[in-house]
Structure formats: C-alpha cells, structure tokens
Amino acid sequence: MAIIGNIIKGVIQIKDSLTPESNPVENQKEVLKSLLDTAKHTAFGKHYNFETLLKQDNIQEAFSNTIPYFDYNKINKVWWHRLHNNEEDITWPGNPDYFALSSGTTGKTSKRIPVTKAMIDAIRNAGIQQVFALNAFDLPADFFEKEIMMLGSSTDLIEKEDHFEGEISGISASNIPFWFRGYYKPGEDISKIDDWDERVRKIAENAKNWDIGALSGIPSWLELMLKKVIAHHNLNNIHEIWPNLQVYTTGGVAFQPYEKSFNALLDHPITIIDTYLASEGFIAFQARPETTSMQLVTDNGIYFEFVPFKPEYILEDGSLTENAPSITLEDVQLDTDYVLIISTVSGAWRYIIGDTIMFTDIERAEIKITGRTKFFLNTVGSQLSVNKMNDAMMHLENTFGMKIPEFTICAKEFEDGFYHCWYLGTENTTQDTTKIAEAIDTFLKDANKNYAVARSKALKGLKVKLTSPDTFANWNARNKKKGGQVKMERVMNEEKFKTWEAFVKS
C-alpha cells in the first residue's frame, strides 16, 4: 500500500476542497497594484510616476496609457543595461539574483533577462499550485511516491560578481525545495553536466536505478533522451524500464506535432499536462483533464495585457506599433488571437514576450498558445500562424500515416512569384512530396480564408522537402543551441533559409 502517496494525495484533496474559487479579473487588479507599489521608488517607477498611477480611479487604464510597450531590445537598451553595471533599483527594487539566458529560436545572441528572488518565489508558488491541481486528474496514490525526471538545461550556473546566469529551467531546478530533492531526477550531479550529449548518456546509464513516474521537458529533446535510454538498454519502449511512468508535463512548444512520435516510445498512453514556463515567468498550466488549455496564473506576480493580433499592429521584427491597443483580462473574447504582454516581479514592464495566445474559457482564464509574433507568416497576405501550421502537420500525419515532429517554413521568392517552402522532419522520407504539398495547400485553404485569398493571387504554391528529424537537432547543435530550452524556428526569413538549405544538403 502506498502509505506516503495516500498521505500526499489526501493533503492535495483537502487543500483543493478548502481553496475558495478564484476571481482572475480581481486577482489581476490586485497584482498590478502590488507591482506598482513595490516598484514606485525604482528609477523606472519614478520616471513613469507610479505613485500618481496608484491614485487613479482606473489604475489599469492609467497604466496602459502611461507606459509604452517594451520588447527585450528596447527595455535592455534603456533600462536593464544598467543592471549589468551593478546599479540597483532600476526596474525592480535591488539587483536580481539571476539572469536567465535565452536566445530563443530567433535571436543570434543570448538575452539576459533579470530573475529576482520574488520571481523565484513566484515560479515555486505556481509550481505548487500545479501540484495541487493534480487532484483533478485523479492519479493513483502510488504516483505521488515515484520520481520525476526533469530534463532541462544545466544547473551548473555561471557565477558572476553578484549573481548567477543560466537558462530558466536550470535556474528553477537549482532552486527546488529541499523536500523535493529526493524525487528529483537525474539528480544534482548529472544535472550540472553542461554538455547535453554527456548528460543524456549519464541518464541512460543510470535509468535502471530510478522509478520514474513523471517526465518534464521540451518534447523534441525529451524524445531524443527517451530514444537514447531505449537504445542503451535494448528496449522496445520506455515502459519496459520505467513501468510506473504515468505523467508527462510538457511545455515550451505546442505538443501536438510531437504527439504521434512521442506515443510511439510508450507501451500505453500516459497523462499529458501542458505548462507555460518562460524565461520571464511561470505563466500558465493545465489545471483540469477535460481540456488541453492552460489556466493563466493570475494571482502570482505577473500582470497580463492582450493586444489583438492584427497585421497592422505587428512590426517586421515581431514588436508592436506604438498605437496598438491593449485590453485587460476583463475584456478579452473567445477564439481571438492576442499578443501577450506581461509586467512582472522581475521588473519587466508591458513586456512583449513574443507569444500569441487565444482564450478558450474566459471565466477560468484558460488559454492556448497559438504561435509567435516573429513566426507569423504574412508574405503576400497569407496571414499564417504557427497554430494553423501545426494543424496542417496533424492533418498530414493522419492522412499519410506519418510522424512529423519537426518542420520549418519560408516564404521564398522565385522567378514566377512567392512559394511557401516547407521542410518536414520525418522518417518517412520516401513519401510523395507533390501529394503532401497538395494536402497542405487544400487544408490551409479551408482553414484560413486569408491564405486562400493569397493563393488566388501572389502566392503561387507550395514546395515540400522531406528530411530526417535528426537534421533539425543537428542544426540546433551546430548553432550551439542543443538541449535545454532550445526550440526549432518554425518560420525563417530568406537569408536564414538559404543557410538552412545549404546545411541540409551537406
């Protein structure tokens, strides 16, 4: 009998039953007041007169009318660069304990995003909220006695004069509470290995010593790790070595493109729980099994705003025009794409995180990530989001019996006009690419009226090439972006696509 597991599950059930219903709209009003009050004496707070904002009848409206939008380049150039010179009280009281390094999928150099102690606490609190939400998934008691494999970036952080630097998953893992360390795998020693291949080799060697009940990590790299473990022990599937594996908390990218290839590594289905942890904070998590949507964490150090995702508001680099209107959680609508704007306890203010989201349940504040502002393909008016690209890949998988965990696309100009050039990562490289191109084209015409209009005018057609999924991992490795939080860019400009094509040919 799982005595400890029953105790933990009982505590979770009691906590869930005693927790009052949350009001996301009111939560957000209180979070904004707290952020402004805490930062009112910082250089940023004085510059934008936070004390005056706090006295307004409608603080949310006054805030949005006073503070401009900031992307990373803008806020770093004007404000955060001063933190690197050891100045204090710039956009948040004191000086951050950590900087999260993030080059994302499009940046050539690492961003250095401040992570304060308040943010570490907020991430931990959101994680605890997610644990208590597991009550809704009705997991067996013995699940709560199993170990959790967290495949993130290295916890061997770079030590600077007065702070540490690393990817957010490594920062978070290095701050796990003491009571959780007995459950945490691969453990502190292996997690500190910086070389991803070496870390995965060690995981494979030690896999038989662990009783893993849950996995956590970005799908593409987690799949590669599971394949290494399976190959190392000559297994048919991962359940032969981890029979009690029941849960996978995914995040970083949409899971749908990886679902078919991921399930092929299992003996039987497991519970998939989506999370939304970015370098800038823990934004949302899946709180119930009836949906794949995630619930915004509205009461924990992040204030959200939403800009309608329309071409006239989006600049070429993914930032926003100055006149782009924002709305609060109170005014959002269902099934509408929004650019996500956040203000946080790390001193990010009206910060363009780069993601687009859509609300699926307003009362519960539940969302789905629909894409990236930089990955919005609008050449010749096609207005194609990553969300629609993912849907097209799932359609191909079902139609042709393929697994397509990776893909990238470029709108490329040829002599007779523009074509969408797709590279699909699949083991089924002998498929008829002409038929695949026709299937993508037909699906997108039906799913996106703007695409259909573009196809009748300047967008001449599609070109499809197939390559091994390993090509995408090797591309990331070549660019020194292997493992951890690394995600493949779904949309490339022509200059980068030229380099990509040369890499594939080589």
UniProtKB/TrEMBL annotation:
Residues 297-362 form the GH3 middle domain. Pfam families: GH3 (PF03321), GH3_C (PF23572), GH3_M (PF23571). InterPro entries: GH3 (IPR004993), GH3_C (IPR055378), GH3_M (IPR055377). Residues 391-495 form the GH3 C-terminal domain. GO terms for molecular function: acid-amino acid ligase activity. Coiled coil: none annotated. GO terms for cellular component: cytoplasm. This is GH3 auxin-responsive promoter family protein. It comes from Formosa sediminum.
